[in-house]
Write a structure and sequence with these properties.
Elements lengths: L5 H17 L3 H17 L6 H20 L3 H29 L16 H16 L9 H9 L1 H4 L26 H31 L12 H28 L17 H7 L2 H12 L9 H19 L3 H20 L3 H7 L3 H27 L3 H9 L17 H19 L7 H19 L14
Helix pairs in contact: 1-2, 2-6, 3-4, 3-5, 3-6, 4-5, 8-9, 8-17, 8-18, 9-15, 11-12, 12-13, 13-15, 15-16
C-alpha cells in the first residue's frame, strides 16, 4: 500500500476518524494505530507480516535483556546479528548465488524482498544500541514498542527515527492527543503529493525509455547527461515527497519528525551533500557505523578507510547489486578527496576570496559536486554494470545532432518544475500577507493538493523509488 493509492486514502480517513474518537484512551490509541500499521504493511502481502513481527519481538526482547543483563554486549550482538542476518538473507541471497554459483536462469524471479526491511532493521539496531549506550530506556510494553517500530507513515521508507524522536512519545502518559500544527501538516502532504504525482512521475515517464535502452542501438548517439540530470531531480522529488507525506501524516497524529532533506543539490561539496541528503540515514551511518569503526580517532589512513567502508556498506544497504557497491565506493572516494582538498593551500586561497570571485568559486563548487553526485547516480539507476558504463560514456560520446533533441526536452517536465517552484514561492509569500493571510495560506495548500490530482500523468502509478530498499 502506498500513500497515493486509494486503499491508503480510505485507510487513513478511517484511522484518523477513529483516532479522534479514542485519542484520550492510551490502550485504544495504541491498538488502533498498531492495527492500522499492520494492515498497511500486509495489504496484498500478508506473507510478509511474520517477518515484521519477528523483528519487533526480537528487538523488544533483546533491548530488555541488554538493559537488565550483566553482560549486555553479548545480547546486543545477538540482536544486531539477527537484524543483519535476516536482512542479508532476503536482500543478498540472489546476488551472492548468481555471482558465485551457477544457478538456472529465472531461479529468483519469484524472490520477494520485504518492503522497507532496510528501514525497520536500521531503526531496530539504533534502538538496541541506544539502550546499550544508556541514552534511552528499554520499553517494557511490547505493544508500545511495536507501534514505534511499525507506525505506518515511516515504516516503509523512513525517516530512520531514534527513540527520542518517536518511541519516547509512545510511552505511558506521552501519547499525543492533538495534531501538531495541522496547517503545516496539510502543506507537507499537499507538497508531497505534488512532488510525487506531478514532478517525479512526469520525469519518470520522460526518461525511463532512455534508461531502459541505454546500452542498445536505439539510443546510439544520444547525449546521456541531460537524462542523468533529470534522474537526479526525479529521485530527489520522489524520495523527498515520501518524507514530506510521512512527516505530514505523523504530525496529524501529534508526532513531529526530523527533516530528511535540505536542498541537497545546492551543496558545495560531497561532504556537505551528505549533510543535506537522506539526513537520517547519514547520521545513522555516522553514529552507528563510522564512529563504531573508529571514526577519525585513529589517524589519517584509518579515517579514510573508515569513510570508505561506511560508504561501501551504505551502498550495499540500498540494494542487491554490485552497482550499488560502486555507487557507495564513488561517494567514499569523493569524501576522501574532499578531506585531502580541505585545508590545502589552494583551498585556503580560494576560500579567502571576496565578492564576485568568491561567488564564482562557490557556483563552480556546487556544479562540480552536483556532477559528482550524478556520476554516482548512473550506477544507482542502472544496476547492470555494463549499462552504467554505457551511460557514463554517453556523457561525452554523442551525436551533435541529437544533443538537444529527445523526450527530455518535453515542455511538460519543465512546466511541472516551474509550477512547483511557483507554488513553493506562493506558500512562503502568503505567510507574511496581511489580514487575509490565513485564507491565502489554506488556499495555497488546497490548490496544491488539487493540482497534484489533476496534473498527475495518466497511467504512471509508479511506486516510490525507495520502496525497493
Amino acid at each position: 500500500m502506498s500513500f497515493e493509492q486509494k486503499p491508503f486514502l480510505i485507510l487513513f480517513v478511517v484511522v484518523f476518524v477513529g483516532w479522534c474518537v479514542v485519542r484520550r484512551h492510551e490502550r485504544g490509541t495504541v491498538a488502533l494505530l498498531l492495527g492500522a500499521s499492520l494492515l498497511f504493511y500486509a495489504h496484498n502481502h500478508w506473507f510478509l507480516l511474520p517477518i515484521l513481527l519477528a523483528y519487533c519481538v526480537s528487538n523488544w526482547f533483546v533491548a530488555l535483556r541488554v538493559e537488565r543483563s550483566a553482560r549486555p554486549r553479548g545480547w546486543l550482538w545477538v540482536g544486531v546479528g539477527f537484524n543483519l542476518l535476516v536482512l542479508c538473507y532476503y536482500k543478498y541471497t540472489p546476488l551472492l548465488l548468481q555471482s558465485f554459483v551457477d544457478v538456472p536462469a529465472g531461479a529468483f524471479e519469484k524472490w520477494s524482498i520485504p518492503y522497507g526491511i532496510s528501514f525497520y532493521a536500521f531503526t531496530g539496531i539504533a534502538y538496541m544500541v541506544d539502550v546499550y549506550r544508556k541514552t534511552t530506556p528499554a520499553e517494557a510494553n511490547f505493544w508500545r514498542y511495536a507501534l514505534s517500530a511499525c507506525f505506518f507513515p515511516h515504516l516503509v521508507a523512513g525517516p530512520i527515527l531514534r527513540p527520542s524522536e518517536f518511541l519516547d512519545k509512545c510511552r505511558p502518559g506521552q501519547l499525543p492527543t492533538e495534531p501538531d500544527a495541522p496547517g503545516e501538516a496539510l502543506w507537507l502532504i499537499a507538497r508531497g503529493f505534488f512532488k510525487k504525482l506531478v514532478v517525479a512521475d512526469r520525469i519518470g515517464v520522460t526518461i525511463d525509455p532512455f534508461f531502459a535502452h541505454v546500452n542498445d542501438p536505439t539510443t546510439a548517439g544520444v547525449w546521456a547527461l541531460p537524462y542523468v540530470w533529470l534522474y537526479a531531480l526525479q529521485i530527489y522529488f520522489d524520495f523527498s515527497a515520501y518524507t514530506d507525506m510521512a512527516r505530514g501524516i505523523g504530525m496529524l497524529f501529534g508526532y513531529r519528525w526530523p527533516e530528511n532533506f535540505d536542498r541537497p543539490y545546492l551543496a558545495a561539496s560531497v561532504t556537505d551533500f551528505w549533510r543535506r541528503w537522506h539526513i537520517t540515514l547519514s547520521r545513522f551511518l555516522r553514529d552507528y557505523l563510522y564512529i563504531a569503526l573508529g571514526g577519525n580517532r585513529r589517524g589519517t589512513v584509518r579515517t579514510y578507510l573508515n569513510l570508505m567502508l561506511t560508504m561501501l556498506l551504505g551502498g550495499l544497504w540500498h540494494g542487491a547489486s554490485w552497482a550499488f557497491l560502486v555507487w557507495g565506493g564513488l561517494h567514499g572516494t569523493f569524501l576522501i578527496l574532499h578531506r585531502l582538498w580541505s585545508g590545502s593551500a589552494p583551498e585556503r586561497w580560494l576560500s579567502a576570496r571576496e565578492g564576485l570571485s568568491r561567488a564564482l568559486w562557490h557556483v563552480f563548487a556546487v556544479a562540480l559536486t552536483f556532477h559528482c553526485v550524478c556520476l554516482a547516480w548512473c550506477f544507482f539507476r542502472l544496476t547492470r554494470f555494463a549499462d552504467s558504463v554505457a551511460c557514463v560514456r554517453k556523457w561525452v560520446e554523442c551525436d551533435a545532432n541529437k544533443m538537444w533533441t529527445g523526450p527530455w526536452t518535453d515542455p511538460a517536465v519543465w512546466l511541472a518544475l516551474a509550477l512547483y517552484l511557483a507554488l513553493t514561492w506562493a506558500a512562503t509569500a502568503v505567510r507574511g500577507a496581511g489580514g487575509y493571510a490565513a485564507g491565502a495560506v489554506w488556499g495555497v495548500r488546497f490548490a496544491t493538493l488539487a493540482l497534484a490530482a489533476l496534473l498527475a500523468p495518466v497511467g504512471a502509478n509508479a511506486a516510490f523509488i525507495y520502496f525497493q530498499f
